Amino acid sequence: MYRLFTPFAWLFPGLRRGSGGQGVAVARAVEVPGHGAVVADDCLDLSGQNCLRTNLATKRALDGARPGSVIEIVSDNLSSVETIPFMLAGHGCVHLGTLHLEGTWKIYARKQGADEGGSE
Amino acid sequence: MTEGVVGTTEGIGAAVSRANAIRASAVVGLFMLASAWTYAIDARYLYFSAYLWFGFVYGMSLQYGRFCMASAIRDLFAVGVPRMAVGIMIAVVLFSLVSAAVTVAGRSTFHASPIGLYSVAGGAIFGFGMVFTGGCATGSLYKTGEGSISALLVVLSLSFTQAFFVETNLLDALVPASWTSSAAAKSMPAQLTVTQGWYDQFLAGYVWDLKSVVAGDALGFSSPFAKAFIGNSLVNAILPAIAILAVIYVVWYRKGWLRRNKDAAPGLGREVAGWWSMVTASKRTAIAGLVLGVAAGLQMWVMQALQQKFGISNAGELLAALGHTSGLSLQDTVFDPGYFYVTTQEAQGAAWVLAQLGMNMTQNIFFGMENGIPSPLANPVLWMSVSVVGGSMVMALLANEFKLKMPTREIAVWAIGGGILMGIGARVGLGCNIGAFFATVTNGDPSGWLFGLGMTGGGWLGVKFFNWWIERKMAKETPLGF
Predict the structure, then answer these.
(1) Between vectors from CA B76 to CA B74 and to CA B81, what angle results, nearest 5°?
(2) N or C end of chain B, less CB within 10 A?
(3) What are the chain B neighbours of A61 within 8 Å (beta carbons)?
């Protein structure tokens, strides 16, 4: 279906070919206010995705995360950036912080262990 | 390696980049220039400016609160987050109270829609489509202001679909015979061919035969105060909103609240605290809901006051007096609701473009008889849509949140396809999430809840389908690394 766009791609050079599917960024240390230096164990780059896909991919990632791990979710979708922190508790995660960088946001969540009530 | 940090979302007001501040000032300056210049030409252009600046306030509020009805339904059903649904109910309650005050003061410009199942059908089609686009009609406008090109595609798709839909004869085979005979029996102008075209026959042969009523009248109140505040506001808006919030609390919020507040003493106090926690959970959304609710009500007051000041009942009279005589309807009217509305003026904009390309867009009831197709520069309600984008852009720039985002091909297809469904749904439902839901339920019109019911059902179905689609796609993609 998307091949229909190919003849018109020269009109819209910005239309990216790919589905912009989740990229995996290299884990690195980040200074999160209130929590000091945090190393994100798992990184999920959802830049360019629409709201629903961002939310569903995040939900999937949260459910699959290892207890105790820190997940970094990168998004430039403001609606999802607002919604994701509210999702976390329902998936056994706590919100560490949200960083607003140039044109993008990074949300940090830690998956709770079973002893912390992170049973979901 | 440690990254530098600009700030958290909580403290984002700290540092507006100089470039963004200049851009925001430029947008505001442009709107101020338009207002001042037109006012200098003729003071009656104040009518246009009123629409413009209310739209600007809406745009700023929508962007600040990430306010979107698609988000309300999608987030609730897909990920169990009631933030946006709560914000909308706050706005409904507040708008209804201000609308009641406006009505009691004799300043209301509202007209109820006929009550019928078409509202449910239109809402369902609209709700289904908006899940794919990622935004409702207003959501797509404010996201355009944030730099989202996919949102702009939605606006364009929705607009042109409406224009084609009201004009086309391609769906005539689907028209019931009863609609055709009912439409033919009405004394319609000869210039309109109301027995052709699905939409003309839908309006003249079906919708116009239905009754419209507001709750205050239906409940038999004679006092204007009781009619407006008890009938229209309390019964038609506030009580249903409270009931919806109660359902949201019980189904989606209470379990998590109780888990987080194990030590709270059981009883009514704990439930009230939980309910209040839900209502105030997102300050941004609550503030946006408050501003939208109050501003939407105030706009009715202001527009009616300006109509009285200029001695008009419709902007068509104003346009004629100002020399803009082309584009008026057969009744010398144009679309002029006097309150927050979205899809009809966008359809007018698209129809104007198609008319410039040589298409005859006026042989139908929607444009030819009711709304006209004025030039975009002479369409006051379209100024409001443009300024929603502008207000959102300014707010996004001031928060360093503006970013030009080109869509992927997949997202572009969803945007256009979803926009088509939204356009059809908006016309079938006689409006969108604002015109057919928000403005109606808050002014005592029960048909708004029918549209809302359809929109919620269609949205739920859309979420289910999209969920299946995304899961299928994600299962094929490269594992995420964990």
Answers:
(1) 115
(2) N
(3) 480, 482
